[in-house]
Amino acid sequence: MKFISLICVFLLQQFSLCGQEFRDRIAEFDHYKAVSKKLFDQRNWQELDDLFNSCRDAKETLSNGEPKLFAYGLGIMIDAFHNHRDSDEEWSNHLKLLSQWDKAVPESVTVTSYKIQFWNAFAWKARGNDFASNVPKDGWQPFRERLNTAESIFRKTLERYKNQPYPCPIFYTTTMTTALGQGWEVDKVLKELLNPVIKIYPEYYKAYSLLSLIMEPKWGGKENDDYRFYAMLPELLNGELGKEMYARLLLVRVLAGITDFQRDLLDWELMKDGFVIMLKKGPECQYQLCDIIKFAHRYGAKAEILALAKETVPDLVDTVSNNNGYVRAVVMESREKNRAWVVHKDFQVTGANENTQLKDFSYNPIYDDMTFSCSNRGIKIYDIDADLPKIEWQIPRVVMLLTKYSPDGKNLLVTSRDDSGKAEMTGLSILAREKDSLSPVSFSPMKYNVLGDVEFSHDGKKVYLTHRADKREENKILREIYVWDWEKKSPPARIHHELSGPFYTRLELSPSKREILSCDPHLYQIPIEGESKAPGVYRFSKELLGTHVEDFTFIENGKTLVVSSPAESGSRKFIFVDYSTGKMLGSVPAPHLNHMETHIGSVSTKSGDFITTSGLDGVISLWKIIREDGKYAVNSAGTYAGDGSRTCFLDSFTSKDGRSFVVNGTYSGSVRILEVER
Fold first, then answer.
1. What percentage of residues in the chain have a pLDDT greater than 70?
2. Minimum mean pLDDT among 432-436, 571-575, 604-608: which range?
3. CA–CA distance from 565 to each of 91, 407, 552, 586, 597 (Å)?
4. How far apart are CA 299 and CA 601, in angstroms?
5. Cβ-count burial of 455 within 10 angstroms (0-12 exposed, 13-18 middle, 19+ buried)?
6. Which ranges in the chain are annotated with CATH 1.25.40?
7. Is the pLDDT of residue 390 over 90?
8. What number does CATH give the domain 336-445+541-676?
């Protein structure tokens, strides 16, 4: 599943667009994914098979040049295999559905491909996501057996075709997953899997993306094998297609940090030719433009590529560089007719050359100011309208991580990790907050590996935290929830633990103040001590069982819960839930939110509530919530592209003078503050 998740990131990166003008493109992509998923759910096997056949034979494309088959296939794969926590029985039931398809359409070339994909995904479910050295012994045998089943289907199918190319590219790309798990030699993958795709469907981008992954050293490739493969593409693929694939692969993989940027191995003239071909296929794509310009900036040719882009894309009107060297393309921001925000501030909390990262944010309701944690730069506190911090607090060589104010704003919780060798400085701190100062009140040392989140109880006397322990039981990762009574200065007490279970990466005090809500990937309630339920973790709402929850927020003064979840089409949807009863009130699509790791929040204004979102690309989107006759809908209220850096937090608050703000922080150290309905 780790491999499948990585593939999904690659594919979805191609379609992460920004701006009102570009959502039709995403809606188009989502539409075709939804079509194949609907036919699958209806067990309409013949029509589903005909759909793939006609699309494959005609080599139909989306409006930006990507194969339409790409969209149909991704729609089925994501929904069928994204949840590796499902029981073996549920997987078995899905295999029966594929068998129904095979029986209904005996000569189907599509279902065979998805049988291979099924056994690949089922194999990775047995193995798990961890490094090979940490995989339990009982995971290896089913992993290998299921991969062998996948390869057996591949071999037997080729025998029926008498070693002629199988007419479906998905057949070969899914077998690349098998090859990766079995450790095939690269030459074998080229000969048996890539060459047939080039013969039957050379435009199928996914094949080249997967093969470049297999060539990485961690999967058996040699150093710089990936660059050698990129250089082969113009020879393997004649004409413009080879140039496009060369540029597209390097662009996606270098900016994603998967392929190292090596200037001396690049063919810059080939990259430029490929960029022009890409832009001609999708010239309105702001995300694509932004990436191309960022890549050129790293190469030292920003001005050259910007001039080329302006010739190719007339709508490119400006380029803005911020202090840390990232570049963003601004494409006709004035077209955002429904924009409900203005940029209040866009600034750097951490400097461009500092060896530090922005970590977290918390608003103080008493002093009406903003607190940021900045790893080895400590705590910085700003007034809302100020450009410089009024308070800076730090401990030398101690990295600051998460921050959270108590509900009354009088105390600040800070989690820290010591880099000086003094283990007693790693743990949890409570700092008393005054107008112009912070002072230590309580500290508890605590050894943790990776923190999930922290939250205060409603009275501010206890702190709840989740983390992944730096230890194992039965060769499995231990995930734990602790409560800390900081006033008594007692050590944190463990109230729940689970082996390789949910990480609980998000904690938020519920409106009822009786429990804390968490997710990963389902919704859970953690009762606050003293309430009727015993300490532990409880699933929230039977109606949400089976729903993959990425993030959540509250609206309508806490009466309604909004959940962000992958939609059937592979993008995102908002699900509205009555928090007191757990009853679902409806769901609406958010079609252009197809970037991974979507953060969501909410902000209230005089005219109503907004949902806020942000993700890997750092784009902030606002959605105005509309409720009529008990039904929910959302309208886009504008997007802000930022500098393209990945989001590390998204929050909101209402100041004492009634202004509503959205705060977005990125790993590059930049902070964007939007004022909503100014």
1. 77
2. 571-575
3. 21, 29, 9, 13, 10
4. 36
5. buried
6. 1-8+21-182
7. yes
8. 2.130.10.10
Is residue 418 over pLDDT 60?
Answer: yes
For 103, phi then psi, to 5°, come to -70, -35
Peptide bond before 314: cis, by omega within 30 degrees of 0?
no
Q: What is the pLDDT of residues 429-485, one digit of tens each?
A: 999 999 999 999 999 888 766 778 899 998 999 999 888 765 555 556 677 888 999
Determine the Cα–Cα distance for residues 294 and 225; give it in Å rounded to an integer.
Answer: 24
- What tokens does 257 get? 């940090």
Structural tokens at position 297: 């900036």
- C-alpha span between 211 and 194 (Å, rounded): 8
526 forms bridges with which residues in the sheet?
516
Q: Which of 472 and 145 is assigned the larger pLDDT?
A: 145
CATH class, 1-8+21-182 region: mainly alpha
pLDDT of residue 324: 31
Q: What is the model's pLDDT at position 367?
A: 95
Per-residue pLDDT at 569 exceeds 50: no
pLDDT at 17: 36
* Sheet of strand 437-445, all strands in order from the earlier edge strand to the far edge: 398-405, 411-418, 427-434, 437-445
- Give pLDDT tens digits for 320-357: 333 233 344 433 333 344 577 888 888 888 754 456 67
Q: Strand pairing of 316-321 and 560-566?
A: unpaired
Please report the DSSP string for 604-618 in residue order.
Answer: EETTEEEEEEE-TT-
Q: Is residue 620 within 8 Å of residue 599, measured between CB atoms?
A: no
Q: Are strands 450-456 and 437-445 parallel, antiparallel or unpaired?
A: unpaired
Contact 452, 489 (CB under 8 A): no
Q: State the span(s) of the chain assigned CATH 2.130.10.10.
A: 336-445+541-676
Residue 645 and residue 618 in contact, taking contact as beta carbons nearer than 8 Å? yes
Residue 481 to residues 362, 465, 526: CA-CA distances in angstroms?
A: 22, 6, 9
Q: Is 312 exposed, middle or buried (0-12, 13-18, 19+ CB in 10 A)?
A: middle
Q: How is residue 215 written in tokens?
A: 């060539």
